[in-house]
Design brief:
CATH superfamily of one domain: Alpha/Beta hydrolase fold, catalytic domain
Radius of gyration: 17 Å
Strand content: 5-15%
CATH topology of one domain: Rossmann fold
Shape: globular
CATH architecture of one domain: 3-Layer(aba) Sandwich
Length: about 250
């Protein structure tokens, strides 16, 4: 059994994986679903909360799992997808495969509106200040497709000041969401055993971004119709089927 490492995104927590993990029904397969530092607990002392810091942290998570179980399958969503790809670029020796959902390291993508707000000093801080209303945030996440129970849980965590601080630092370290001059240069280093799974109606990272990436790299793309950014929670059975098919075609 190949161990699995799941990395969540922004503004989420490991809770976002619950529907998919239930649909996957992985049984005795070793599974790690860590929280990004600062997202469910205070930021660790000295942790910079930059994209490089999160990538290094994720490499550490992969190394620990590899030490126990050998090459792993890494799965990422949103920022977790970007970090998962970075792990695959830096340490392909730790992985059997990578699979990502609704975010990809693409040299031509320039970020969505909210990413640009968070990347802007003062404006980002003002957004974080006025958005600290859990009920309203939960309503917005639910309207965007997130299951209501998970949306309420994620919104409650927004009260964590360290989480909001970490998000600003993360987006600013990536200049919003621009990777053309750093991480995207290493796309050729990615292992061939990769896959994209995409909610067709994603308003943050449009399907065209995934289609362009798939065409340019030859990475297989599964489109989940009737789903948006959180396809992993909106259509977990379909995403699970896509992942199982992908993993089933790999050499153990």
């Amino acid at each position: 059994m190949t161990a699995k490492l799941f990395l969540h995104g922004v503004p989420d927590s490991p809770a976002i994986w619950r529907p998919l993990l239930a649909a996957l029904d992985l049984g005795d397969t070793p599974v790690a679903v860590p929280a990004l530092p600062g997202f469910t607990a205070p930021l660790p002392a000295g942790f910079a909360a930059t994209k490089e810091a999160y990538a290094d942290w994720a490499v550490g998570q992969a190394e620990a799992l590899f030490a126990q179980h050998g090459p792993i399958d890494i799965v990422g969503h949103d920022w977790g997808a970007l970090i998962a790809q970075r792990v695959a670029m830096l340490r392909p020796d730790l992985l059997r495969s990578w699979a990502i959902s609704n975010a990809v390291i693409d040299p031509d993508y320039r970020g969505h509106r909210l990413a640009r707000i968070w990347n802007t000093p003062i404006l980002g801080e003002l957004y974080m200040m006025v958005s600290n209303q859990p009920a309203k945030l939960a309503e917005g996440l639910t309207a965007a497709g997130m299951p209501a129970d998970i949306a309420a849980e994620e919104a409650a965590q927004w009260a964590n000041k360290d989480k909001r601080r970490a998000i600003l630092k993360l987006y600013r370290s990536a200049k919003g969401l621009s990777f053309a001059h750093d991480w995207a240069l290493d796309i050729p280093k990615l292992p061939k055993a990769g896959a994209l799974v995409w909610g067709a109606g994603d308003p943050y990272v449009e399907l065209s971004v995934a289609q362009r990436y798939a065409a340019n790299t030859g990475t297989p793309l599964t489109v989940i119709d009737g789903a948006g950014h959180w396809a992993i929670a909106e259509r977990p059975a379909e995403v699970a089927a896509a992942l199982k098919a992908f993993w089933g075609g790999l050499t153990a």
